User: What shape does this take?
Amino acid sequence: MSFPQTRLRRLRRSESLRALVREAAVEPGDLVYPLFLCPGEGVRREVGSMPGVFNLSVDEAVRDAEEAARLGLGGLLLFGLPESKDEQGSGAWDENGIVQHGLRALKESPAAKKLVLIADVCLCEYTSHGHCGLVVDTRDGFEVENDSSLDLLARAAVSLTQAGADVVAPSDMMDGRVGAIRRALDQEGSEDTPILSYASKFASAFYGPFREAADSAPQFGDRKTYQMDGANLREALREIDLDLEEGADMILMKPAMPYLDVIRAARERVGVPIGAYQVSGEYSMLQAAFAKGWLDHDRAILESLLGIRRAGADFVVTYFAKEAAKLLG
Ligand code: PBG
Assistant: This one.
């Protein structure tokens, strides 16, 4: 049946009709809000390339978390800027580390502890060289070692769990880290802590502003020997299969907007919950366009999130989480 019997415009004639037949939706509970914790008290330092995003001392972060809870957000994703860095990234598994401290404070707030507290597990914010694993010198420069990094990542995951993380989210892209983390958690009696693995993480220019926010830019070289090549969809699916075999409970896809096809392919392949990360560069380019008056702020935020949900993500990590929840509410 085609035109004139079929007229798709009939179901677009009013907002109530459009609402009735709407296929995908964004709700505050599907959104996860990233926080960047830093030392000190009363610190609320805006990130230059991310207007509206702040480095927050723990007391300030608790306030933001309480607001996030009032807005009905699903959870928080925690990153840390440590007091000092070293070659190994020991701040990542320090029981008095910045994120560990933040987790304990958030768990003391009746409002904040209702959120799912997800701890990012990586070394790059804690290493002096800014890489996500251990660096060794080689004849032709340097190498980010895989196997020797696994133990450190596992220690970080255990420490963050003991401090109160509800979920750990390894973002380093070392091979075998999900299995190493699962074994370490089980050994420490944390067999009920889920792993959200950044299974499909591409080496992307869109992480640029984050590296300012988290002070985690590599001091030499780049991340192309561990993060994925942007051209590879089949490889992304292999990463996902392997992480699930190693025991990942959920997967995170990243970035989102330039990789919506990868999210869709993952959705069609696996049954586990899928999150997508609308990363810093996606946020910053929209903010830049808003500042110029080139895009409609409210509509562009919601459309960008709806596209990610429609592609197949169950939840979205986004710096717009609070603003989106206000718009939806
Ligand atoms: C740490 C990590 C990064 C992001 C999340 N976890 C940076 C990177 O891989 O360089 C990026 C998030 C964003 O851009 O918003 N490895």
In short: The first helix runs from residue 15 to 20. The longest strand covers residues 31-38. The chain has a mean pLDDT of 97. Residues 120, 122, 124, 132, 171-172, 207, 210-211, 216, 223, 279-280 surround PBG (CB under 6 Å).
